[in-house]
Model the fold of this input.
Amino acid sequence: MTRKPAKFEKIAFVASDGSEAREALMRLAERYGNVKPKDADAIVALGGDGLMLQTLHRHLNDHIPIYGMNRGSVGFLMNEYHEDDLIERLDKAEVSTVHPLSLKAFDIAGRPHQALAINEVSLFRETFQAAKLLISVDGTVRLEELVCDGVLVATPAGSTAYNLSAHGPILPINAQLLALTPISPFRPRRWRGALLSHKAQITVEVLEHDKRPVSAVADHVEMRKVVRVEIEQASRVDLYMMFDPGHNLDERVLAEQFRY
Done:
């Protein structure tokens, strides 16, 4: 269930290290107060998309809605920065619920590693040699050998990030889909990826892993020399992002598809 209090009375402000963001935090905290995040009705993040991801990760299990205001560079996940009428903006804000990806990876020594990714899970070659990957979906092998720089699985929230740069599809936030996108595929050269159900279980096995080592990355967490990676949506983890009316994540995703 979407958590949105009837009234926003207690706000926690967090900011990136940029001077604009730190100065904004001081002004807003003086004007509206600044409580600890665990006591807040909402967290207001001042920075760019990187800060938003960090804040979402930091409060994965707290069920606190997060409202971003852009004091960074990209700001796709952020609202416009205005200091006036913040309480009213929070009251009127629309909430988008997003779910991260769960990553379970096994390295060359057989050790398991786990992480959550809000944007994407990516696999990258570690050396000058291309990676060779076998891809299965729900237990069925769909691609016996992908020769590439890597491959990624993106959530709808992350589909406009690295996935878009790799020529992957943009997904509406409520599309119930995941994007499986190759990174610089060499063979099959014309394979452009796949759209998968949000319930899909994706397994990537690294072929010739001793000769062609591969790293797995869940947002900013890296695991090196992996041999097998299992990816699925962490559907029980709910994250709440707040957007001004008319500028919610659905609208941003739609608008991005008409940029040229």
User: Anything to note?
Assistant: The helical segments are 19-32, 49-58, 86-92, 162-165, 249-256. The chain has a mean pLDDT of 92. The chain has two domains: 11-98+238-256, 101-233.
